[in-house]
Specification:
The complex is a heterotrimer. By secondary structure, chain A is an all-alpha fold. In chain A, 69% of the residues lie in helices and 0% in strands. By secondary structure, chain B is mainly alpha-helical. Chain B has one domain. The longest helix of chain B is centred in the middle third of the chain and has 32 residues. By secondary structure, chain C is mainly alpha-helical. Helix content of chain C is 72%, strand content 2%. A two-stranded antiparallel ribbon of chain C has the order 1-2. The chains are: A mainly alpha, B mainly alpha, C mainly alpha. Chains A and C meet through helix 1 of A and helix 26 of C.
Chain lengths: 112, 517, 637
């Protein structure tokens, strides 16, 4: 069986939905955070897959000279995600010190 | 290619940077304003009036995006904008000069004043719709801060009302301008005012009549809100009443003219069919400015509110002059913009002076101040006479030309009718301005304005400190700004041709102006 | 630079100098002001004898004709025709005398400098009106005299009554100028010019004159001429134009119903009343009518209206004067009445008679006011005639000159008023007998109230301590009185003999002079008889009285016109503006504008209930939204 683009996309979609469910359903901030990372990885997988399967239309003779924009974006996403983790974890720690909890149902002060 | 107009914008910017860096605020701001005033006079003097085209041009690309017309940093002035540049410069100088030395947070205060002036100046010298619009927005924010921080009375409410109302007007205007540009065929879309003007001049019917009938009212309402066209005027009087005098001078005297200038430059030439169809409505709204706002002005019981309403009322003349859309009317309107800018600046400045020195702005409590403050009385009389259109002061020449233009030009029968309303407006102005002079300066004076030595009250043994009584604008720095504005008004009033020979050729180059016979 | 411009420049320079330097320096202010007035008089003499040429004009505003709009060219220039020369002589001559008189009258006032500044700006504006070559130039100075009148009426501004009177004068004039401006605009729209040069006006006249003009009193033309007339403009618009121009005159010359400001204007210092509110400024309206007379002649209806208003003012003001007690107010109503005569003369087709009367009136009315000022001065600011009495012996020079002015005013034969009034009555007689009879009755009333004033103030016993020891004024005040008295005597027959022809040529629009009317024998004697009977009646009624035997409320209350204005116009306006202001504040701003703001706030109040604060609710809603967007983007077509 040849592995096509659709297979990659399906895996990415499954990853994404698992991550989303985690974000919506889990109560612990750290777990939510991990689920968020999983969603980002799903997006990364999509990027790479598209990058692998699409080439510049003007260069059909060189099929491996692929559309590398997707791969470039993956690096951006990883970098930004790393920065985000640094900030986000720091926030969670600060929040824990303040409220002594990481359960989101107890953190509802941001309303009217 | 740099242009002297760039200097006009850089001077306030440099002053702002200097003030932030720690230079003495008022002095720096004053010097910058003075430099600009001298420069604008030089530009007026050097402008080749006979041709009437754009001059001191500077044009460089700014942002180019696909699908959007290129935005260019395009500066230039002609006989219509140059007088307004002069007005901005002189009112800025006066506004800075009348501001108190010891105002709190003075660095910020003078920075905001300079920013307002910069925004107004930028809007008048820009020949690109993007910059034209952005510069005006740029000036609104410091207005908001000036009212909110240094205002009096109900300043929080007033600053929010003014800002939200004006921002809403700007938004409507933006929608109208975008609709206008998108209505052009795609290859000819441009933000460049000169290009638009010549294009419209060559292809007068490029925007369909129906589209114009829809777009014009949007643009009109946008500009109308900014200028205080009836019934969109109610932001102005409370706003001006609470604003610090310098901010009111700059806004009522200069910034408000932006909308009228925009109508002359963009609104009416680009959408002339729509304008013609909506003319009866415009005229009806104008009558609202003359009569409705005029009568309300008579009913006011406080000086700053009265002046705020009167400045709304006088917008009617300017609108009427522009609505004539012929050489006499538009030239008159441009002349009157300058004249009204001077007189409004004078009135707001003096109103602040009176409120400050007498500690009171209600008519019922004031009286007889001419005895203690004769100079103030003379200045206020001059300002009132200018506002009333007494010959010899600048407003008369402008109003006169507008009367002539509208009497002959605007639609048969409606022209004379609305001219009659406008002329009646001068009667209304006389009623409230004279009453203001009478109640503030004439009659017996309350004893509290007399100077008195320190005393000890007989019954309560309390000490009453000595008081200098009501003071006058007696020193050179105090009266210079007023004298300057009055002199400018007198010069234009006696010799309107000084400005007219610059304005007239440029106006005759506008699209759709009736040709010479 | 032509020397003639000095006529305008000198007073202007004096004003500026006083405003800037001399407002606290009476001596220099007097030198500047009186000096400029005397130089102006000298230049006027040069102008009158044609030693100074008419200066070149220069463009003030100039727009070429475009589209359907006529060109607008306003050329500032000077016109030196006989009409202007005569008026210039009056303005600068009488003006100079009053300047000199004021030195004595005002020297004790600490604000003397401001007073002379006002006089100078007045001289500037008034000279400007006289020499104007077009209506806009005239309007410029027209408002200028209004302004100086405002400043001088309110000279004693700490008095509330003076401040109110000044406002009243300005607003009344503004209201009338509203009509004037519309008249000017109509004139320009129809004729394409604002020039009042005689040749231009003659041209307008010939282009528009109807073969047979319609009229309500005389020959009736068919209605068809109202709207259709080949080559010229519709008589309806011509009449509107005439009424508009006349409205200007009604304000400045205080014709009914705009007359209310003039008596109140007596709050100003007496020299001002003499110069501005008797001799020159109030006559400017009449002068303007004479200047544009060829235009007025285009509408018979308009002329009849003018004559009617003039006639009404003449008799109405004279009636009111009969019951007034303030010496200056009597003279003010007398001025109104005489102005009514002049306007009536214009309306009856006799601008020459109007100018003649204007000239003589300027002399004797200025004289009367100055003499009254001398009386007031002598009695320490006492103006009520019932508090005077027996002054004839104590201040003889003032009394004699006042008497001469009085005789000239009531039309004593050989004195100036006699000639001019006779000429007006002759014009009136040939227009319609009504005007003649009302005019004659007014002459009777004039004789009556002036004799009443003289008898009460100058004869009989002194009624107050102040009146027992008056002091004669200094010679700086009495010399102008004597000079004016001389002119009041000689002006009549000298102008009649030498000058009247010049006036006539001014209006020879058809190339021929208007024929000089004469009163038929009997009618010529009627006014004289009435005057004599008026004098006798007043003498017998008021001789040795200490209270007024007549008590006519309606006349003493000025026909209740002022009360009517106060209640209906001023009061009504106040109610209307308060209502409008309330509407603006609560309905427009409160309900609509702030209403919109409150609706926005209310919607926000409702929508914030959806904000639970729970992170996961937001995330769920967010992803739901994303799913919906994706669904519509991909699958819904």
């Amino acid at each position: 069986m040849e592995i096509t683009l659709n297979h990659y996309l399906a895996v990415a979609a499954v990853f994404f939905v698992i991550g989303l469910m985690g974000v919506i359903m889990r109560r612990n901030l750290l777990i939510i955070y991990m689920s968020l990372e999983m969603m980002l990885q799903a997006a990364n997988l999509t990027f790479v897959a598209f990058s692998r399967f699409y080439s510049y239309p003007e260069s059909p003779s060189r099929p491996y000279f692929n559309h590398i924009d997707g791969q470039v974006f993956v690096f951006f996403v990883i970098t930004v995600a790393a920065a985000e983790v640094a900030v986000g974890l720091a926030l969670i720690v600060a929040l824990y010190r303040l409220k002594e909890t990481t359960q989101v149902q107890n953190l509802t002060t941001l309303k009217f | 290619m740099p242009s002297p107009l760039l200097v006009l914008l850089l001077v306030p910017l440099a002053a702002i940077i200097a003030i932030i860096a720690g230079a003495p605020a008022k002095r720096t701001a004053g010097i910058a304003a003075l430099l600009n005033l001298v420069l604008s006079l030089g530009l007026l003097y050097n402008y080749p009036a006979a041709q009437g085209g754009y001059c001191y041009i500077m044009d460089c690309p700014w942002v180019t995006l696909s699908g959007v017309p290129p935005i260019r940093f395009h500066l230039g002035v002609d006989g219509i904008s140059l007088p307004l540049v002069f007005l901005t410069a002189i009112v800025t100088f006066a506004a800075i000069a009348i501001s108190p030395n010891n105002i709190r947070r003075s660095a910020e205060y003078y920075c905001y004043l300079l920013l307002m002036s910069l925004g107004a100046m930028g809007a008048f010298v820009s020949l690109d719709i993007f910059f034209f619009f952005i510069f005006h927005e740029f000036a609104l924010i410091p207005t908001f801060l000036l009212i909110g921080i240094w205002g009096t009375q109900n300043r929080q409410f007033a600053s929010f009302q003014v800002t939200i109302y004006l921002m809403a007007g700007s938004l409507i205007l933006l929608a109208g301008l975008i609709a206008l540009i998108m209505a052009l065929p795609a290859p000819n879309r441009t933000f460049d005012i000169t290009a638009l003007q010549s294009y419209i001049g060559r292809h007068p019917n490029v925007i369909s009549h129906q589209a114009q009938d829809v777009i014009f009212p949007i643009v009109l309402v946008g500009f109308g809100i900014l200028v205080g066209l009836f019934p969109f005027h109610s932001w102005a009087p409370p706003g001006y009443a609470s604003a610090p005098p310098a901010a009111a001078m700059l806004h009522a005297g200069v910034l408000k003219k932006f909308a009228l200038y925009g109508l002359i430059r963009i609104g009416i030439p680009m959408l002339h069919d729509g304008f013609t169809d909506w003319l009866p409505v415009i005229l009806t709204l104008l009558a609202g400015n003359f009569l409705y706002a005029g009568f309300i002005t008579i009913a006011q019981k406080e000086l700053p509110t009265m002046i705020g309403f009167s400045s709304i009322m006088h917008m009617g003349y300017l609108f009427l002059g522009i609505a004539c859309w012929n050489t006499i009317g538009i030239s008159g309107a441009v002349l009157l913009m300058v004249a009204h800018g001077l007189s409004a600046a004078l009135l707001f400045g003096l109103s602040g002076e009176i409120t400050h020195r007498a500690g009171e702005n209600r008519f019922t409590e004031l009286g007889g101040l001419a005895q203690r403050a004769p100079l103030l009385a003379v200045f206020f009389s001059f300002a009132s006479m200018a506002s009333m259109g007494v010959p010899g002061l600048a407003n008369f020449a402008g109003e006169l030309m507008i009367f002539f233009a509208s009497f002959a030009a605007v639609l048969p029968f409606l022209g004379p009718l609305f001219t009659a309303f406008a002329v009646y407006g001068t009667v209304i102005t006389a009623i409230f301005q004279l009453r203001a002079i009478k109640t503030i300066f004439y009659g017996p004076m309350p004893a509290r304005y007399e100077p008195r030595p320190a005393a000890v009250l007989a019954n309560t043994r309390e000490t009453v400190p000595a008081s200098a009584g009501m003071t006058d604008t007696a020193t050179l720095p105090e009266y210079t700004p007023y004298v300057l504005l009055i002199l400018a008004s007198l010069a234009i009033g006696f010799m309107p041709f000084l400005l007219l020979h610059i304005i007239q050729p440029s106006v005759s180059l506008l699209p759709f102006i009736p040709p010479l016979r | 630079m032509d020397i003639a411009w000095l006529l305008l420049l000198l007073p202007l320079v004096a004003t500026v100098a006083i405003l800037l330097r001399f407002h606290r320096d009476p001596l220099n202010a007097i030198i500047a002001s009186v000096g400029s007035a005397s130089l102006c008089f000298i230049i006027t003499l040069l102008v009158v004898f044609d030693w100074v040429p008419q200066p070149a004009t220069w463009n003030w505003i100039s727009f070429p004709a475009s589209g359907s709009i006529p060109g607008l060219t306003i050329e500032v220039g000077m016109i030196f025709d006989p009409l202007a020369k005569g008026m210039l002589l009056i303005v600068t001559g009488v003006g100079l005398l009053i300047h000199i008189y004021s030195i004595g009258y005002m020297k004790a006032d600490p604000s003397c400098g401001r007073f002379f500044g006002g006089l100078s700006i007045f001289m500037f504006s008034m000279t400007g009106i006289v020499i104007s070559t077009n209506l806009i130039e005239m309007f410029f100075f027209w408002e200028g005299v209004g302004l100086s009148s405002y400043l001088l009426i309110g000279f004693w501004y700490t008095r509330d009554s003076a401040a109110i009177a000044a406002n009243k004068a300005f607003v009344c004039n503004r209201l009338a100028d509203f009509g004037f401006m519309l008249g000017i605009l109509l004139f320009w729209k129809m004729m394409g010019t604002v020039s009042v040069l005689p040749e231009k006006l003659a041209q307008c006249y010939h282009q528009n004159a109807l073969p047979a003009m319609h009229s309500i009193l005389g020959n009736q033309a068919g209605l068809h001429t109202l709207f259709a007339h080949e080559g010229g403009h519709s008589p309806v618009f011509l009449t509107l134009m005439v009424l508009g121009l006349f409205a200007g005159c009604m304000g400045k010359s205080a014709m009914f119903p705009f007359h209310v400001w003039l008596p109140d204007a007596m709050e100003g210092p007496t020299p001002v009343s003499a110069l501005i509110h008797a001799a020159t400024m109030v006559a400017a309206g009449v002068y303007m009518l004479c200047r544009v007379y060829p235009l007025l002649a285009l509408s018979n209806l308009g002329l009849e209206f003018i004559a009617f208003i003039g006639c009404l003012t003449a008799v109405g003001a004279a009636l009111i004067a009969v019951q007034q007690n303030d010496i200056k107010r009597i003279l003010a109503y007398s001025t109104l009445s005489q102005l009514g005569y002049m306007v009536m003369a214009v309306g009856c087709g006799g601008p020459a008679a109007a100018m003649f009367h204007l000239t003589t009136h300027a002399f004797y009315k200025a004289l009367l006011f100055l003499a009254a000022g001398s009386v007031i001065h002598a009695l320490h600011e006492e103006q009520d005639i019932w508090k005077m009495g027996g002054l004839f012996k104590k201040i003889p020079l003032t009394a004699w000159t006042f008497g001469i002015g009085l005789l000239a005013l009531i039309g004593c034969p050989l004195l100036s008023g006699f000639y001019s009034k006779d000429l007006i009555l002759a014009f009136a007689f040939h227009t319609h007998p009504l005007f003649y009879w009302v005019g004659s009755f007014t002459a009777f009333l004039t004789a009556f109230y002036m004799t009443r004033l003289y008898v009460i103030a100058f004869f009989g016993p002194a009624r107050t301590p102040a009146a027992e020891h008056p002091h004669e004024s200094p010679s700086v005040m009495t010399v102008p009185l004597v000079i004016l008295a001389t002119f009041s005597v000689i002006a009549g027959w000298s102008i009649w003999g030498y000058g009247i022809k010049d006036y006539y040529h001014t209006w020879a629009v058809n190339g021929q002079d208007i024929p000089l009317p004469e009163l038929p024998g009997f009618y010529g004697f009627v006014p004289l008889v009435l005057v004599v009977s008026g004098v006798l009646a007043a003498y017998y009624l008021y001789c040795d009285r200490s209270t007024d035997p007549l008590d006519i409320r309606i006349l003493a209350q000025k026909f209740y016109i002022d009360d009517f204005y106060d209640r209906s116009l001023v009061g009504g306006q106040q109610h209307a503006v308060n209502l409008l202001s309330w509407l603006d504040n609560w309905v427009l701003d409160g309900f609509i504008i702030r209403g919109a703001a409150y609706v926005t706030v209310g919607i926000g109040e409702i929508l914030r209930l959806f904000q639970t604060g729970n992170l996961q609710t937001y995330a769920f809603l967010f992803s739901l939204g994303g799913a919906v967007v994706i669904y519509f983007a991909l699958f819904a077509h």
